[in-house]
Specification:
Length: 285
């Protein structure tokens, strides 16, 4: 069955597309990506994703000149050609080929790819029973220069996810080398204390997720106290509620961490309220 992707300026059949064997994304993980979810053929928070990609590309000095409007048009065409409605979208940007040696001296020809595929949702039962998390044995360096960017260097996250699965958990909480909570392998983490929602600040060495941003906005709109700060695992284990977020899972409750139950009900009151508000936003996409 044919499927279409966008590759370096044009839409082509996926089976006919080719990448250079000297593409730096392939050789060194020298690039970035974004994961987006569409609702009724409309990408949610596309502008936020493009801005984050653009900012990170600027930080890494990878040329990226596509506008939100251009990418919106690309996605519209891909969704039509691939006959998709609610879809998973991935944008991948690498420094590309044409630069000799390890250090990219001189001009490069960036590779930009947009792929769409049918959305595979998380099991509905998890939103009622909550996810099981562990604390990873692997720490994130507080001096890592790419923690705040969604790069193609994802092997550490893979190893941490594998650790969680081997311990019969869905995911793992990553602590930094100062023993502060950062995030999970593919999601941001929030805790609830009474009517206050807390999430690790950028100073904890996190990726500032787009869904994380939406949750912060929803809290402010519903007069829920919100705080971005650094805190340790003990604070998480003592929380009334814990939930994690990303663009595909949306807002997911957590029921146990390292075998310890979290809260009195799943999902908790604040988590449920935010889930409903988030669904209301996406329903009008």
């Amino acid at each position: 069955m044919s499927y279409f992707i966008f590759l370096n300026g044009k839409i082509v059949e996926g089976t006919d597309s080719h990448l250079s064997t000297i593409d730096r994304g392939f050789l060194y993980g020298d690039g970035l990506f974004e994961t987006i979810r569409t609702y009724n053929k409309k990408p949610f928070r596309l502008e936020d994703h493009v801005v984050r990609l653009s900012n990170s590309a600027r930080f890494l000095e990878i040329p990226f000149n596509y506008t939100v409007q251009q990418i919106s048009e690309i996605l519209e065409e891909l969704l039509i050609r691939n006959d998709l409605n609610n879809a998973y979208v991935r944008m991948t940007l690498s420094r590309g080929a044409g630069v000799n040696g390890f250090f990219p001296a001189g001009k490069c020809a960036p590779t930009f790819i947009v792929c769409t595929k049918p959305l595979v949702s998380y099991p509905l039962s998890l939103y009622e029973t909550g996810m099981l998390l562990i604390t990873s044995s692997i720490r994130r360096s507080t001096t890592c220069p790419i923690s705040n960017h969604k790069t193609l260097n994802f092997l550490t996250n893979y190893i941490i996810k594998k650790e969680a699965m081997e311990r019969a958990a869905h995911d793992a909480i990553i602590l930094n080398t100062n023993d502060y909570v950062t995030e999970c392998t593919v999601s941001n983490i929030f805790i609830v204390e009474g009517r206050t929602v807390l999430t690790p600040s950028i100073n904890a060495c996190i990726l500032q997720g787009i869904t994380r941003k939406v949750v912060l906005e929803l809290c402010k709109a519903k007069d829920i106290s919100i705080s971005e700060e650094v805190f340790n695992l003990k604070k998480v284990l003592g929380a009334d509620e814990v939930f994690i977020t990303n663009s595909i899972m949306e807002i997911m409750p957590v029921s146990r961490i390292d075998g310890k139950p979290i809260g009195k009900s799943i999902p908790g009151t604040i988590t449920k309220l935010l889930q409903n508000e988030y669904k209301a936003l996406t329903r009008f996409q």
